[in-house]
Amino acid sequence: MASNSSGSGSQGRAPQRLRIIAGHLQRPVDVDATVSAAECKAQGGEADVASDGKSVPKRRQEIMKWNGWGYSDTKFLFNKKGQAEFTGKRYKLSGMIIPALKEWMEGTFGTNMQHKSLATPALTRTAVQPPTLNEAFVEELKSTGVPFSHDAEDRVFRAHGHCLHEIFALREGKVGRVPDLVVWPNCHNDVVKIVELACKHNVCLIPYGGGTSVSSALECPQEETRSIVSVDTSQMNRILWIDEKNLTAHMEAGIVGQDLERLLNESGYCTGHEPDSMEFSSLGGWVATRASGMKKNIYGNIEDLVIHVKMVTPQGVVEKSCQGPRMSTGPDIHHFIMGSEGTLGVVTEVTMKIRPMPEYQKYGSVVFPNFEQGVACLREVARQRCAPASIRLMDNEQFKFGHALKPQVSSMFTSFLEGLKKFYITKFKGFDPDCLCVATLLFEGNREKVLQHEKQVYDIAAKFGGLAAGEDNGQRGYMLTFVIAYLRDLGMDYYVIGESFETSVPWDRVLDICRNVKARIIRECKDKGVQFQPFSTCRVTQTYDAGACVYFYFAFNYRGLSDPVHMFEEVEHAAREEILANGGSLSHHHGAGQCCAAWAEVMESGRVERCGTSYSADTTMC
Amino acid sequence: MASSNAYAQRDPMLKKRDDFEDILEERRNSSDLRYALKCYTPALYKGVAPCKSSMLKSMVLQSDQLHYVIQQVSKETGRQTDNVQEEVSAILDEMAHSLQLSTVRFFAFTLSKIFKSLFKSIRVNEEGIQRLQQAIQDHPVVLLPSHRSYMDFLLMSYLLYTYDLTLPVIAAGMDFMGMKFVGEMFRMSGAFFIRRSFGGNKLYWAVFSEYVKTMLKNGFAPVEFFLEGTRSRTSKSLIPKLGLLNIVMDPFLKGEVFDVHVVPVSISYERILEETLYARELLGIPKPKESTSGLFKARKVLSEDYGSIHVYFGQPVSVRSLAEGRVNRCQFNLVPRHIPGRPDEDIHSFVNDSAYKLVRAQEDNMVLKPWVLLASLLLQKQAVGQEQGTALDELTAQAVWLRDLSRQYGAFLHWPDQMTPSEVVSSSLSLHRGLVRTCEGKVQLALEHEGGAVGPQSAAALEEKLLSQAVIVLSCASYRNQALHVFLRPALLASAIHAASSNQKQEVFNSFSFLRNMFSNEFILCPGATVQDFEEACYLLVKTGTLQVTQKEVLVNERGHRTLAFLVSMLDPFLQGYQVVCRFLCEEATETLTEKQFIPAIRKFIIKHLLAGRLRYAEVLSSDLQKNSLAAFLRLGAVEKIKGPIELLIVFHT
Hints:
The structure holds two protein chains of two kinds.
Chain A: H1 14-17, H2 19-25, E1 76-78, E2 84-86, E3 97-98, H3 101-109, H4 135-144, E4 148-149, H5 152-157, H6 164-171, E5 181-183, H7 188-201, E6 204-208, E7 228-232, E8 239-243, E9 248-252, H8 257-266, E10 269-270, H9 283-288, H10 296-299, H11 302-305, E11 306-313, E12 316-318, H12 334-337, E13 346-353, E14 355-356, E15 360-368, H13 371-383, E16 390-394, H14 396-404, H15 412-428, E17 437-445, H16 447-463, E18 467-468, H17 471-493, E19 496-506, H18 510-527, E20 535-543, E21 547-557, H19 564-581, H20 600-604
Parallel strand pairs in A: 5-7, 6-7
Antiparallel strand pairs in A: 1-2, 2-3, 4-5, 8-9, 9-13, 10-14, 11-12, 11-13, 15-17, 15-18, 16-17, 16-20, 19-21, 20-21
Chain B: H1 3-6, E1 20-22, H2 24-29, H3 32-36, H4 53-61, H5 64-77, H6 81-95, H7 101-118, E2 121-125, H8 126-138, E3 141-145, H9 151-162, E4 169-173, H10 180-188, E5 191-194, H11 202-218, E6 223-224, H12 243-253, E7 261-269, H13 275-282, H14 292-297, E8 308-313, E9 317-318, H15 319-323, H16 345-364, H17 370-383, E10 390-391, H18 392-408, H19 421-431, E11 436-439, E12 442-445, H20 459-482, H21 484-499, H22 505-518, H23 530-543, E13 547-549, E14 554-556, H24 561-587, H25 595-611, H26 623-636, E15 639-642, E16 648-651
Parallel strand pairs in B: 2-8, 3-6, 3-7, 4-5, 4-6
Antiparallel strand pairs in B: 1-2, 7-8, 7-9, 10-12, 11-12, 13-14, 15-16
Helix pairs in contact in B: 4-11, 5-6, 5-11, 6-11, 7-9, 11-12, 13-20, 17-18, 17-20, 21-22, 21-23, 21-24, 24-26
């Protein structure tokens, strides 16, 4: 659908504007790695950016994988020489050799290059159930002129998020219940019409934004006999207006993060909201799942950024009548919209705060002798309320993981420097390589303030034994979060399955929860017969006044296990149980979805508060 | 029977227990000095650096928990915080251990000498040691030995030193501190001292619990304490005390450690050093205060033979597994963890159940010697008045019968199979020659039987004679008691059948349940496990061909009467004890009976009845039994305690 009203997507200017994503994704332009502006998507005018400057076409299959993460042209593989390589041209790491990855995988998971578990190459259309169409609904829909499709591929694409079990099933070519129809509304009024028709004809709607849900929110209920319609908002992707006086912008909810930032950048603004999934996740999804962005320390989480929301519910359109910055008339309707995860309605338009683009950005990193010291440092930074735009603390395992992802260095000099650095830290400073951990930092603002701020943070770090470890390490840390989802696909080619989950927890519990959850994962895997100790790691990714957000990764080699996905889910369940027992929340930003349905009872019993998150909104709305 | 599967694992044939190694053997063959000076490098918990006691103290003093309580106490009493802080330091100095390797080496040397002269062997299950070693490296560990002798904690440290394991820190009663020099020696070998009672002292409790938790959380050393709280004078396991168990479980429940492993250790002595001391104490002859000179006098025990010791290190029990599905740990999420709080009802019941499980694990792994069976038999015979004693071969035959029965009930019996039964019996009898006498091929307890012709004796002399007989009986009973846990459930069932008015299963169950409830201060009976215990008892008695249990009825087999009679006699002394306490309370208790007066009064009452021949068991003189029965009657509401300037006991005549 042509939908190019507002964001004049001239590719000529885009390269200068794409600072945010570029910071994480771009190819190395220069070894000096302050975020120099370089293009991410648009370099060389690949077909990935549609002619109107938008990244997501109606037919997602044109550029994206049907059974894995992200773009079809981008993936990790082991080349003929047995070296790991990242294909494509989209990311900074693209086209590079990653020499240490193979050894790391073999050492961490006990994988063997000979033992592969490859995915089914293509979707068998016959595996997809024929659609259950509600003829009356389809007839009336036709008369509205809203485009729709019941093509098998279109439907399968909208039947899943990126939970492990969803991707695992797709790789095996298994498709469960999928939506019977996909509609692409082009504007708010289209959604109003669709919802009206759905009510009239008793059809289920599942709103679909970017499809990056990791909480099973997009899964169609197996037992549903009515026709299920997926409402794909991806074509509602315009910036309708920018109000420079009030520093707000009004957007359609289907716009994905990277487009939103790029288009705002063209006018010299940004929202500063950067969840790790921002390449694909949509604004509506953020609102519906109470998303959190990497730079929330400066810009705030989605609930701080949203000024106004329009949501279409079966009872009509819900919205506030003004754009006042704060109101005392409660309860605030935003409180039931945010975190409703698509169960109450479809978010169609959002007004958000915008900020002038930062003048200067700088990455940084600090090495700590151990995780305890690192957490103490973060706590102090939070106490003094001087957290940079982003501050993250990776544990030792993740630090080593990050190291395994270092691309091949071309010059002798660089590798000599690396060696020297390592020598200094481990031998001269006496850091134990099996204990040390690293904090990555991102500063943003005007140059002078950034440098001042940087000094303040490094001074605090020094009190906790932290040593500044360079911008490179910092930047690579952030890159990791963008490529990790691609890495999971590589792992799955070699019998490794993994997942991430997150929580928020009071400060005094941070160390305990990290230790206990990691240990619980290891113990559960051992009890369930996993031969090789799982990879179980965490990082503290956000700091707040009263606590922190902790992000866990775990993965293991499932070779020889009869029902790996089931086992995996049991371990994950145990890990969540451990989180709750240690005073953590069910989720900091992923949302509850259906993954956590098992906890519904716990939540009702009043002890656990439901938290929201990152992506595409969904769940049936009838 | 539906229950048969559930208890199949109790079948001794299936229950694989580890083998034992004698550690004294090596001591007899190589230099003790070299042993005491050996290279001692235990593997530590996750590689923590060993912690100096001064460092430990400062960690405790700086903890949030103590800060909070100090502030609170200072606010409540109006004292300066510095002043409270000083008190805290003083408490800590009084309490803290100061483990020194040189002292440990000194003990290693002297104890080697002492052990070798006292005991034939000290047998340890080395697989248990290996499990312990692994546990110490993976988790904070709590050692829970059974407590039958002063020897226990020295022995434990000695063993851990021998096997190159981290030495434990041991919770010891303050009374040891009274023994000047020795108290300090114990402190330097890893003991820390706690006051016997400090109920209301918030500050003391805070220091104490923080001290234990700090050691545990950081995994500096295994924490050792006695779940039973004190030495059991009767060799029955005592009802567990929960205070310390609560403290060591707390770091897990609050998420401060991933897990805590608790290792029950069963130490069984073939002959207990304090044998007659205990009996005297139970009869009201006061125990000498622990003193260095007392210990010195006790050296005459060194010249006697005390047989062998078996030490069984049980399977480490994960507190995490115990709590799985039992405890909702989220309850600790809403209050900062450094603020002390009373445990909820469900935590209390969880700790209580765990404590019972652990004591039962201790009981289960307790090694029984043949003498235990002989003592049971001889006591029963003495009670029915076999004045001339039992022929040796008859006793042997009965012992073999009892051996087989107890094995079927799952007893961990150490019966030397390479010897003939009569050799086994006579060697047991000779080890315990102080308690039994063999003359003209007849065996009986070594009670003083003066010929009847001496003529009338004064009441005092009669009483004295009675008490001296009671010393022998109670000593013997303490050996029989070692086997009580094996026979307890079947014996309760046997007595229930005996007491029930019909064969109806429900009737028998009710009677079982009543007895079990009444005796729950006396024996280790897990709270709320009446049905399981009943089924277990049925299963065992059916398996051994004693009973038939149908849907409705419980029937005694023809050949089951012997077993049943034996089992009933096992509990009989206790039943009679409770009856006599009951009678005393009904007949003699006046309005003004205080708890303090209770023991002397009932003792007088019982002596009177014993001398008059109205009571069969001298055992009922045991103050342990009397206290337990009073506690049971209080619990059951038959007696009420009225708090006041003096505590009065009021009896309800119901």
